[in-house]
Amino acid sequence: MSTPRVDPITTEIIRNAFLSAASDMKEALIRSAHSPVIYEMEDCGVGLFNENAETVGQAAGLASFLGTLSPVIELVTQKLGRDSYRPGDVIIVNDSYIIGTHLNDVVIFSPIFCENELVGFAANKAHWRDIGSKDVGFVVDTTEIYQEGIRISPMKLYDQGRLNQTLVDLLTMNARFPDSLLGDMHAQVASCRLGERRFVEIVERFGLTTVRDAMADVFDASEAAERRAIAEIPDGVYYAEGWIDNDFVTNEPFKVCATVTVHGTEITVDNTGTSPQRKGPTNCGFVNTLSACRVAYKFVICPLDPVSGGSFRPLTVKIEPGTVAAAQEPAACQQFGPHSLLMADLILRALGQAVPHKVTAGLPGCARNVFIDGWDPGLGRRFVSGEANPSGWGASAFGDGESGVVHLTAGDFKNIPAETQEIKFPLLITQYQLRPDSGGPGKFRGGLGIIKEYEALADGTLSLWFERSVTPQWGVFGGKDGAPPRVVVGAGRPDETVMLKASHRPLPTGTIVTAYTSGGGGYGPPWERDPQLVRRDCLNGYVSREAAATEYGVIFWPDSLEIDTERTAKRRSELAAQTESYPA
Amino acid sequence: MTITYVGVDIGGTFTDLVYWDGGRYHMAKTPSTPPEFAQGMLNGLDQLFPNRDLGHLDYIMHGTTAGLNAFLERRGALTALLTTQGFRDVYEIGRMNRTDMYNIFFRKPERLTPRHRIYEVPERIMADGQVRRPLDTEALGDIIQALKQDKVASIAVCLIHGYKNPIHEQQVKAILERELPGVSVSVSHEVAPEWREYERTSSTVINAYITPIMEGYLAELERGLIERGFKGRLYIMQSNGGVMSTTAARSQAIRTLMSGPVGGAVGSEILAEQIKEPHLICADMGGTSFDVSLIQDGKSEVRTHVVMEGFPILAPMVAVHSIGAGGGSIARAVDGALRVGPVSAGARPGPACYGHGGVEPTVTDANLVLGRIDSDYFLGGAMRLEATAAETAMGRLSRDLGLDPFRLAEGILRVVNAKMANAIRTITVSRGIDPRRFALVAFGGAGPMHAAFLAEELDIPRVIVPAFPGAYSAWGMLHTDIRLDLVHSYFQAFSRLRVAEIEDAYQVMQTEGRQRLLAEGASGEHLAFYRTADVRYLGQEFFLNIPLAPTFGTEALRQLPSAFHRAYEIRYGHATPTAEIEVVNLRLRAVGQLQRQALPPPDTQVEAKVHQTRRRVYFDGEWYSCAVYRRASLPIGFTFTGPSIIEEPACTTVVPGGFSGLVDDYGNLILNRR
């Protein structure tokens, strides 16, 4: 522990002041944004940074977005030059190769000045409803970034407090929902302005030197804590790989690899072996991969501490340029998520070889997007219903996985209520419930996925992205995989079709779409599960009687949930004998 | 005619009572008696009226924690949930979010009813209220058999779009009440008639879960009151700052969740009027939490969507922002850095100075070490504090951090004060409100000890410590009215709004409000109605509540957009005047004033002569010899300057150097920054 630069009392006051300011910035953004994905799903990230783009305060939101703001500010500053910033400026950028994700995600940040000296940045990233991509709503079949919408290289949205109206006109002219775009943009700017005010207040109260020194102490403390946690992980090289089903445009699986090296107090993640960038839209910029790696790291290393500029210092991420994980122009990046989520999950799988009690079985690796768009005859206007759906979480050494939760890098992302959906769109939701037997069997069971069923009340089109059928959410240490996802269109009709992905497939009035999301992986052999827990699962309908017998070896007396202990013991020993033993 | 009242606030530790006999106030404080809280209240009444005769009392206003405790401690009734077929797991899935985003072992909050007690009813209402599938009463019959076998005590019913067309919920309720006598039934369109199925389900389940507990509690209480000859009216405090009848509380128990703490907000509304300060920041600091709320233009703010213990609740509540900072907040060294809270020593072991085995220093220990609390006059001397235990705890931490123990103690207070100031910034500065236009009211056991420092940090000119800081909630309850908050979900883009439709909806609510107020005992000439509408930009989720005139006509319609854009600009710092707006809810607040006379100022001074001593107190790195006053001995108009200390059994007021103060005409302590 190095000697602190500032007394710990002042440091703690300054640290709290930044955290509180960042959380207020987020509140300002989500409460006044116009796009449902921002306010309802909190598809956004918010933070305050020092002049070197190091995090001084960040607010909870979408986990994957938080790791991205700091490197984006750094990249943009390299590009524009630090000297080009002026008080009152606001910078805007959405280029996928800089921000990492798709063009709908727009980063807005403002440099903060005190007495003409650059002291920090207020930044946020939020998902805009439409950015003028080739199709309305959800785009899954692009092969070049130019099809995905208007691409904004880093530029000034406000120049010394003056709005760049030319740019705004260009943006609104290219968007399908210009009012919504303006509303979101204003909300993002207002959030930055609030951050600036609070930042300046803090500097005025404590003095710039003290603030800088105090935050340097905070960074050092975060780093020290992380290094201590890493030192407890046995040194070694741990590897895991998996497959993404396809990139939609070409129908073949492609590979994602994670090599995790733990050495002393350092962790290195390397993606050697990962597929080159794809023709279809499953590519992303480096920053998105970096962020996915950071989320996986954070799950294991000091998960409860707030992220600061000292976090992630012990982590090195080596990504080969030209792979899906660091794609180059003109790669399409609309579906930036699937492979980066798998990458994060693989890092956890690799680390599980060293610290089995710190990770879970396979996690939800996809947003399970269902988009339905068309013409609303009642309101006489275009509609786009888009949403992410919950899946089952992986089980761990401490218990079952949670059922019906958002995927692993999404955090506080919320679903759309069925009632909201029906009020706004010509859709009828006929089912929204857990999917029995979808949780991977195990001593601790994976969480359940869900079933959501839609009926189209007007003609429209359907777009889908359901991932991870080739590499489902794996079980670990003898636990079984969770059930893979599945979508049925026109269930029970002669033209019934099963699929996982779709691009603007015609959806005539009356068609039923039934989406099954995946379950979490199980942990430990299922026949070691406490029979009383299996009984409770059957009582609640999470597990069927059949699965209780075949998977868990728990057999009930006919027409009751009384355990037949004799047959159960026999079945369980058979199950155990059928399988090799797994080390704990 | 003299009208007499008692206000009763039952807290986790103490039950406070304030009695107005028509001429002066009388106070009583008794230990609470969990889990049978009614007994504590009756004990308090017996202390006020030793002859056990309540025959002359007109009103009892009661803030109860019976519902809240049952919810927090999971001691509610065995509850089943009935939902629309296909929607069994709305309750378990929730909104799918993981609030603790980096916690790989995240768990959702423990639900109040398990999945096997959730039943699906074949029926369906559409978004526009049309019946798509009629209620299948035969299938409901099978469910009723299962409910009987399961011996459930309470049933929540939440059907899809039941807020829009309640016909099926009404039918289900009637059948359940006929077939299952004695079982409590809560239906969503009565509990929370707003769209969004998870939020409505969660609210209805909580209501069902605590209603039987509330019924039992009120029955016991009423029995005890009748035994004592009580012939007046018993009113229950609602979370919105008004009262309701016990009949209403028996079916709307969810509206009592903040029944106790809300008395403070009502007290502040009265205080604002008394001292002519329309804008107040109300700071309540206790052992574990710091709760802050605003009074603007003399009125407290009410929120309609709240989250408690991870569950959304659609019920109007006075808006309170809470953070984990209190007298019990523990100070620790983490990697050479200082952390204060949110971990609290709670009541057990409590701060080190309580002598119950606490070894880590807390905020209270810091105050004691610096001489700001008198170890012999804590709770008026009822509890002796162990100064040496506090010093030992502080000494240990000061060695870990390499700091002088007194500087550390003052540092702990600075950190906790800064956290509380941040909480105040969140509800003011961050929403475009300037805290310097406000006065700060401090109450709760620890509030008056810290208030002046918060005022310094936020540049607030004036601090008020009210006449009864320990029984402020109970005092506030004496002054409340019957308040009903009615809502009508009305989802329409601005271009499609129909003036007549809106006016009709308000008229219907007004008629209902009038009937209910009269039924609850309000007098006809003292009714008031306030209309507001929830408005937002087309497609947004969050809305602003816009006040409307008493009648809705073409002119009101014309002015609605500009009123909204203006409110939006003030609240968020930007607006989009070109964008279309939509209305989502029409709201009506119906207020029935209870018949009463104006209350004169309280007489706080009970001792004949000013009681003053001196002791050493630490401020800004130095020891000062300070005047220490007993508050009960200070006459109206008495002035004092900081640094000084004013003690009373309920709390200690710390007056730092930069302040001077006086006792005002109402017995409040007013501290002014010099």
What do you see in this structure?
- Chain A has helices at residues 8-32, 36-39, 63-80, 96-99, 165-173, 178-206, 208-231, 286-300, 337-352, 418-424, 531-539, 545-550, 565-578; strands at 44-50, 55-59, 90-93, 105-114, 117-127, 155-159, 162-163, 236-244, 254-263, 266-270, 315-318, 369-376, 381-387, 427-434, 450-456, 460-465, 486-489, 497-499, 501-507, 512-516.
- Chain A is built from 13 helices and 20 strands.
- With 584 residues, chain A is α+β, with helices and mostly antiparallel strands.
- In chain A, strand 6 and strand 7 (162-163) form a beta hairpin.
- In chain B, strands 13, 14, 15, 18, 21, 22, 29, 32 and 33 form a nine-stranded mixed beta sheet that branches. Chain B has a six-stranded mixed beta sheet with strand order 3-2-1-4-11-12. A four-stranded parallel beta sheet of chain B has the order 6-5-9-10.
- In chain B, a hairpin with a 5-residue loop joins strand 32 (659-663) and strand 33 (669-673).
- Chain B starts with a strand and ends with a strand.
- The interface between A and B is large, with 93 and 75 residues.
